[in-house]
Amino acid sequence: MTTLPNSLVVYLIPEPGGRFELYSEPHDRDAAPRQSAGFWRGRLRALETKWHAAVEAAHRVPSSGLLARLRDRVIRSAAEAIDEQRTLWRLREADEATLVFPRGLGEPAAVELSRMLLRHARRHHARWLAIDGLAFAVSGLLAIVPGPNLLAYYFALRVAGHLLSLRGAQRGLGALPWRARPGRAGDDPRVILARPAEDD
Q: CA 84, CA 165: separation in Å to the nearest integer?
């Protein structure tokens, strides 16, 4: 049985101020799970479903009470961080990637820009991995306090996120094969609309 390659589409999205970011669509959560998912993959899928339900509730329903509002703010902030790092995380497991860029940019410039963004991400996450790793080690001193060490949990999650992002950036800059093409109908509309004025 032939295994299909894990192909990732990465969009080079224009941002205000002449900046760009790399973006990939989230996984289709409504897709049927594979039969060979296994126990742990099934547990992770269940946790992912609960997480998305919590994020939707945090955005949809205004909570009453200080702790509930604080919880929702933390959930929203974590969800934004995950969205920002999702492309890097997915690059770790991709077998190939396609860069989709605005038509007015040109392929050589788009490829160089994407590599510049990956290099910046590699430096950024390497630096914060060291900082949060140190903070996680220091937070272990709170283990003598009764109850869960929430500070250690927080820094553990940050360490994990930065490590996954760093590995994704390294893979994107290394052995991962890339193709590039201009945006076209059906792509992310932010790429389609970013055309030079003479195309209008």
A: 10
